[in-house]
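Deliverable D5.2: sample structural annotation.
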Amino acid sequence: MRRILIVEDEPDIQELLCAYLREAGYETAVAGDGVTALSLFQSQSFDLVLLDLMLPRIDGFGVCELIRRQSQVPILMLTALEGEEHQLRGFDLNIDDYVTKPFSMPVLLQKIRVILRRSAGSEPEAESCLRYRDLTLRPDTREVTVNGRPLELTAREFDLLHTFLSSPGRVFTREMLLSRLWGYDFYGDERVVDSHIKNLRHKLERDYIETVRGVGYRAAKENL
């Protein structure tokens, strides 16, 4: 199992990243400051470092520079700082990619997958298809078919369906779906989730998604 070191000082973001990455099949460790991050990195083995810039004790640039003195482990920088100079400084330190907050969790996960594949020096391994009733979902190509017929979904609709089928039977609240797919700091109306699910159900033409009254949504339990 691939191991990711999350270096982030905000507890809410730590929790979100840990939950999302573990569900995606990664093992995680967390550091809330630069000194702890370096201690963990020197004592354990990691396949990727997810590194925030604004950290106590030693900032992300300092952590990156010290890691690069001993390792070429992939580093994905995560920050609220905007501006070309910060990105250029990061790339000068040989980071692999850069994500600006607020971020999309599915996009972040895809960046992590791409970086890990590149670092392994091998061809991408196809993620297993998800099959449910007469529906097939292919995560790597983002294709969905029903009885072999291609189904045209928006990116958000695909991510919603992928979320439900990846965890059959699990109930997702609107808050959970907003955090996972819209971003941890989304402040819009929760009913945007209902609207997307309504559109998704209309396209699927069958009740693949079940409403759990007063809680949220899940993949319908029948035949799972």
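Annotation notes: The mean pLDDT is 85. The chain has eight helices and twelve strands.
The annotation will be released with the project's public dataset once the embargo ends.
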